[in-house]
Each structure stands twice: as C-alpha cells, then as structure tokens.
What we know:
The complex is a heterodimer of chains A (479) and B (258). Chain A has 479 residues and is an alpha/beta fold. Among the domains of chain A are: 254 residues, 3-Layer(aba) Sandwich (Rossmann fold); 69 residues, no CATH class. Helix content of chain A is 52%, strand content 11%. Chain A contains 24 helices and twelve strands. The relative contact order of chain A is 0.13. With 258 residues, chain B is of the alpha/beta class. Chain B has two domains: 116 residues; 117 residues, Rossmann fold (3-Layer(aba) Sandwich). Chain B contains 13 helices and eight strands. In chain B, the strands form two sheets. A four-stranded parallel β-sheet of chain B has the order 2-1-3-4, with helices on both faces. A four-stranded parallel β-sheet of chain B has the order 6-5-7-8, with helices on both faces. In chain B, helix 5 runs antiparallel to helix 6, helix 7 crosses helix 9 and helix 11 packs across helix 12. Classes of the chains: A alpha/beta (479), B alpha/beta (258).
Amino acid sequence: MSQKPYxxxxxxxxxxxxxxxxxxxxxxxxxxxxxxxxxxQKKRAKAKARLPEYDALRDRARDIKAxxxxxxxxxxxxxxxxxxxxxxxxxxxxxxxxxxDIILDICTSVGAKTVTKGKSMLTEEIGLNxxxxxxxxxxxxxxxxxxxxxxxxxxxxHIIAPAFHISKEQVADTFREHHPHLNAARDLSxxxxxxxxxxxxxxxxxxxxxxxxxxxxxxxxxxxxxLIVTNEGNGDLTQSLPPVHIAVSSIExxxxxxxxxxxxxxxxxxxxxGQDMTVYTTFFTGTKRSGDxxxxxxxxxxxxxxxxxxxxxxxxxxxxxxxxxxACINHCPIFSVVSxxxxxxxxxxxxxxxxxxxxxxxxxxxxxxxxxxxxGRCEEVCPVHIPLPDLLRTWRGRAFDAGKPGGLQGLGLKxxxxxxxxxxxxxxxxxxxxxxxxxxxxxxxxxxxFVGAEGWTRTRDLPTPQGGTFQDRYKGGER
Amino acid sequence: MITQxxxxxxxxxxxxxxxxxxxxxxxxxxxxxxxxAGAHVVVPANQTCCGQPAYNSGDFADARAxxxxxxxxxxxxxxxxxxxxxxxxxxxxxxxDLFKDDADWLARAEDLAGRTFELSQYLADHLDWSxxxxxxxxxxxxxxxxxxxxxxxxVDQPRALLAxxxxxxxxxxxxxxxxxxxxxLFSVKFPxxxxxxxxxxxxxxxxxxxxxxxxxxxxxxxxxAGKLKRRGSKVRVFHLAEVxxxxxxxxxxxxGEA
Lengths: 479, 258
C-alpha cells in the first residue's frame, strides 16, 4: 500500500540529508551519547540482570504473540464483544484517514472544542492532530515530552521518549516562549521546575477537555480491557476526567488473557526504560458503571488496521509481534548518531525501517532498510525475538527488485557479482587494480582519496593493499 | 572426504575476498596456524567471495549463484575455515536461508554450514592449540565483529588464544558490543553515518591506551585502521591470525612501508 507521508511538518524525508543534519548538530550528538549509551542501554542491561527469568519471559512473550497472530480474528472479535458488554464501542478503522474521520465524528457529536491526549504513536501514524486542528478541535498533548514537541511543532524523535533529543536548556527556552503569562525571571534550570510548570499549565486543560484520547499498549481479549503505561499519570487524567474517552489501538496489540498482558508488562518497561514497572499502569474497561466514582460516560476503542493485516502470514509477519518498547532503537548504532528525525517518518530505528516502507512504499523509503550495518544488536535486545535484520533484508530484496538504488551503485554491484561468479575473470580484472593501488600507496600505507572510493575516503583513509593477491602468491608457492 | 593418513582433519581454507585482495598475509598466517595445530589445509582455487555484498544488497539471485559455487568448491573437506566471522557467519547462518525453497541445495548448504568455522573458533574449539607461541609484549584491544559475536557466539575464543602469547596484556574496549560502523557496502552508501559510528568506536579504542588493535574480521579492521590513520593515531592494527602466527614484523594495516 502507498500513502502520503504522515507529517505536513518539515521533517526531512531524505535519510542522507536528515542524517547529515543530525551529525552536524553538536548539541544533539551530546544528547544522544548521554541518553542512549549511558541511559537506556545501561538501564536495560541492569533491569535484565535483576530478573533471572528475563529470557524465559521473552520466549513466552514471543509465543503469546505468535499464537495471537495465528488466531487474530477470533481474539479481536472476542475483544470487541467484551468491550460492548462493558458499555463501550469498537470502531474498526481500515486506514489512517478512516480512523481520523471516526475520531473527528465522535468529537463533533459531543461538540468537543478541546481534547486532551495521552502519548500515542498511532495518532502520529494517522496524523490525527493535524486532522483535528483542521476541523476546529484543539488537541492538547499531556505527556511531558509530547507537550514539549507540540509547543515546538516537531514530530517525536523516539517512540517512547518523543523529546529525548531536546536538552533541558532548550525546553526552558521553549517554555519561556510559549508561557508568556508567567514571570519571565522564574528559574527553569532544573528538570523539576520544568515539570512543575508543565503540570500547572496542563491542569486546567485536563479539566476543560471535552474528550480524552489515549493509545493502548495492550488489549485484553478475555476482559475487553485496554491498558496504558505512563510515568506521569497523564494517561489516567486523560482517560478518566473527560466525559468521553477514545482509545486508539491497532489490531496486533491484542493478547488473549490478563496473564498474557502481565507477561508483556513484565518485559515492556524493563526493556524500554530499565524500570521494573512504569510509574502508572492503567487498565480501563468500558464506561463508568453506576457506583463508579469516576470514568467516562462514553468509551470508544478505535481499532486500526492501516495495512497491518496485509502483513499477516507474509515474510514480514513477525514485525506484528512488536510491543513498541524501543529497545531496538536505543541500541541501534545508526540511530545513536542520527536520532529519530533523520528517518523521515513516524517510527525511527530498526523497527521504523521495517514499518515505514510498508506504509509509504519501498520506492520512497528504500534508503531506510539499507541504512543498517546488519550488526544484529536490535534482534539481540528485542523482547519478543523479532528477527529485525532478516526483515530489513527482505525489504532490501524488494528494493533491489524495484531497481533501487540503481544508478552507479546498482551497476557496480552487477559488475562485481558477474566477476565473483567467474574466478578466473575475477582475478584477471582485480590483479591490476591491486597492483596499481599498491604501487601508488605503499609508501604512505593508505589513501586520503582514491578514484571510485570517495564514499570511503570522505571520512577515513583507505588502507593500501599489501601486494599481490593471496591466490596468486599461494599459486606461486609462497607459504 | 579427503583424509590424509596420520594427519588431522582436512580443512578447506576460505580465504575471503578482503584477505585475498587487501592482505594476503592473513591468509598465510591462517594457513600456518591451522597446519601447526594439526590440520591438513587445502586452498581451493575456485573461490572469490562468500556473496555477502549481493545478499545484503537484496540481490538474492546473485547471492544464491555465488553460494552454489562456494558450496561446490568446498564440498570435499572435513571442515571449512575462514579468517572472518562475517564470511563464516554468511555460510553458517545465511546460506541455508538462501535455499529454503530448494530442498537439494538446502541439504548441501546445511551440510557446508555445519562444517564451517571462523578461524579462532576452530583453533580454540576443534584443534590442539598447545604449541608454544611467539612473544607479543604489547597491550592489545580486541574488537569483536558483530557477526562473530552475535551470529557465531564467538567471544571467548580469540581472547583465550591471545592470552597464550607471552607478554600480551588485553585491554577491553569500554563498549565491545557496538558495531564499528563498517557494515560492508553500508560504509560507502552512508559514509557520513558510518564515519560517525567509527569515530566513536576508535575513540573508545584510543581510550584503552592499547598499542595494538586486534580483530578477526578484515572488513572491520580496514575500516577502523583507516579511521585511526585519518585521526593520526599511533594505534597499530593487525588481524588476530597475524598476531597468533607471529607475523607482525611487516607493516600493520594502513601503515606505510619503510
């Protein structure tokens, strides 16, 4: 399937350009080193070490996901039946546009002016905020990171930490600019003062909101419950204060039982942030019952497909097991120097480079699955054992079949492959190249520049060949 | 199977394209080490590359054709050894994947996969490595290639082999699980990104204070040696086979000749 990129914002859709921009940003590079290698990576390793059954849990989670995907139709229908039983409604959304229309209709039906939002990557995927604003409904992001990037008019740079690329000094500047009614001389040097300010700004919005929109990390078929994990409690205020709660989730988030949800939960925070659990874990089921002290009068669950069902049973099937923990992103050597915006669409990192070509087409996104060293660390840290390098390679195959990248690169590969299949010709062709390089480079031992190797020599020297080929020297009797 | 009387296993040496073209001494070092440890080594002439550049570029038809040549060239040896975790990983892990829809070739690919080893893995786990080794009185940082570490699970073997050299002092790189930024064709398709990853890696190598960087994959080593040279670093770079075989008298990777 093919659709327009989600964002109208100036996010760069050329990975090479976006990457260069990030590499040239000294502040961003420092932020990346601090938050990834010394932050997420170490915290996950410690959390894993604290839980002896971590690996056994991963196997169980993988099996739960595999079983659910095998029987997805049955579990989704069960889930819908339970939601209805609990007084809610399930809206099946084909694609992003359909989901946006459904959500806007619900907002319009209750005359909503403002909606509060919990953090939800799916609403980024469908471009919900833009759609709501276009129709006169003001979305207010209530997750601190989302609130910051909403003020700055930026897309998230990470699926679990949308503003991790922004330093606290930058946040302070943003708050001063967007909160002009506050004392200009206030101290915003500490994260706690920033948090306090965001909280007090948001308090009135929570109370005034007509509708609350959240995502859902897991859907539980046997109870019709959805659950969200947050560290700020904003999700709870979003879903319980307004009279209408809309949860947006996608079809692959369902699991059969509460026990299964528990398995996912035990892995999710540990793998994502290194916490044993997030600060808040909220299960919500249907509408407010008589006798309940709070809860919404209307509960709508928008169940998004957006091309996911096309992946079932195909070569990319396993990507549907993803629980969106972000570990592959946190451990990716490429992400760790280019950050999230370079990927150009909603989901960055290895998981994004598998999903994005499916959403926007491989011709548009062919660079993403190729922007990977195949180091395998993403698969190693994935809590549900998604073979991300294999899935990326599947996309590389599809890109190759579509003639991407083509040009000189494609031609070079073809010539190389033709030679590699013909050892005698291969030696005949490469012997003089090796001899020439040696003659030119033996004194210094490496080239600062070499014709045809500009990509290599742009950032490093090209070591000179030692002289002769092994095969020639071996044939000549050398041992 | 070719079995020599009174000799160890027959080993087909998969030289690898990088060693063949860039640094033949690694091939000769591997040859010596294997023979010293009791193997009867043969170097089939009919080999070029394992096909990984095609495979990782999504050109599966060419990758299959090259893999078939490799499978045919190495069908007669007890074991196949490559001085590279990346190439050994390609054969062990990915050749069977290439032929999952072709039962005959799948059987041959799996047979080869089961007989193929990375050099340090083979020396440490399958041969008698008790001969006295040459002195190497240097501090050494060892770089694990991602393929060795994750596809083959080879982490302890190269360190154990290095430890047998009198005088060696091993310094671990602070983060030895992260890629060096090479990634085969990735390094030339995304030079800026690759260069930034490599910069971070060689900074950690320099931070160890090691005199010598050793690894078992010439791709990673060529990348890091090129970056160290660009930065004007004094760290010398050798392949593990050269160090183990005592063949470090000549120029290190990227070093000029006197």
